[in-house]
Design brief:
Layout (H helix, E strand, L loop, with lengths): L1 H17 L5 E2 L10 H11 L3 E4 L8 E4 L4 E5 L2 E10 L2 E4 L3 E3 L2 E3 L1 H8 L4 E5 L12 H4 L5 E6 L9 E3 L5 E3 L6 E2 L3 E2 L4 E6 L1 E3 L5 E6 L16 H7 L11 E3 L1 E3 L2 H10 L5 E4 L3
Parallel strand pairs: 1-20, 3-9, 10-20
Antiparallel strand pairs: 2-6, 3-5, 4-5, 4-18, 5-15, 7-8, 9-12, 10-17, 11-16, 12-15, 13-14, 17-19
């Protein structure tokens, strides 16, 4: 767990340096924008700690997407119901050595293909995007990004940090404690719970409007959901529900690195 948290700290430092922009729709608030040239310079300097997989276009791109996942706590570990996708994804590099050979997260993903596991990495969830078409794409209801305050706002909420989490194929198509039925295109990943950083964190939640609508008087957002999941102050009890989160701005940054531009997403911000 210490290794994962130290990696997460690197991301937090990066977040503070870059000063993320948040292209969005339906926001209840506004976010500051850094100049394009300065931001581009920071991205160029820092992109080396991340890796896009698969490296070769012909390789299988299977991974677990946990960005919208809900989780169940057991003995200090969050078990999260994630999606199985096959496309490009991005992650911290997680470099390691095996039998003297240098490897990283992309090698780990390839190794899992024939050995019954995969890894949680990141791609922009379609359900968050303003141009998502629920009836056509059939990925479930639209979602939004929710902002949770950081420790400097009096909150010490927990979320699951799933980048690099391991996920086992044997969980697909089965029933799992606390998570119910795991569909054939879903998988359970084990992730460490982490406390909110000072800059706050973001989770996904319900969007009660059509994708791309503007949030008027909070009608698109679920404040009760936000208050519950942003303020999980203890994860010691088995059965505690938490959701996957990331330090504020990290998801937007990763989307920029992966796709070349930040997507327009549904966003719920509360005063």
């Amino acid at each position: 767990m210490f290794h994962t948290l130290s990696r997460l700290f690197s991301v937090l430092v990066l977040a503070a340096l870059v000063g993320f922009a948040h292209p969005s729709v339906g926001a209840a608030g506004t976010s500051g924008l850094q100049s394009a040239s300065a931001e581009a310079g920071q991205l160029k300097k820092k992109r080396g700690i991340f890796k896009t997989c698969p490296v070769k276009k012909r390789d299988d791109g299977t991974f677990a997407l946990c960005a919208t996942a809900s989780c169940w706590m057991l003995d200090g570990v969050a078990y999260c119901k994630c999606e199985i996708l096959d496309e490009e994804s991005i992650s911290l590099t997680y470099r390691y050595r095996e039998e003297g050979e240098k490897k990283d997260v992309c090698d780990l993903l390839q190794a899992g293909l024939d050995n019954g596991f995969t890894v949680s990495t990141y791609a922009t969830p379609r359900q968050l995007e303003a141009d998502y078409k629920p009836a056509k794409e059939n990925l479930g209801p639209p979602l939004a990004m929710y902002n949770c305050p950081g420790q400097n706002r009096g909150s010490s909420g927990y979320s699951a940090q799933c980048d690099g989490g391991l996920c086992f194929n044997s969980t697909s198509g089965q029933d799992f404690p606390g998570l119910g039925k795991i569909k054939n295109d879903e998988i359970v990943c084990s992730c460490p719970p982490v406390q909110s950083p000072p800059i706050g964190f973001q989770i996904t939640g319900p969007w009660n409007c059509a994708p791309g609508d503007r949030d008027v008087d909070g009608r698109c957002c679920d404040e009760a959901y936000r208050n519950k999941l942003c303020n999980v102050n203890s994860v010691s009890k088995t059965g505690t529900e938490i959701v996957v989160g990331a330090p504020t701005g990290v998801a937007t940054f990763l989307s920029k690195l992966l796709d070349g531009t930040a997507p327009k997403i549904n966003r719920c911000e509360f005063k």
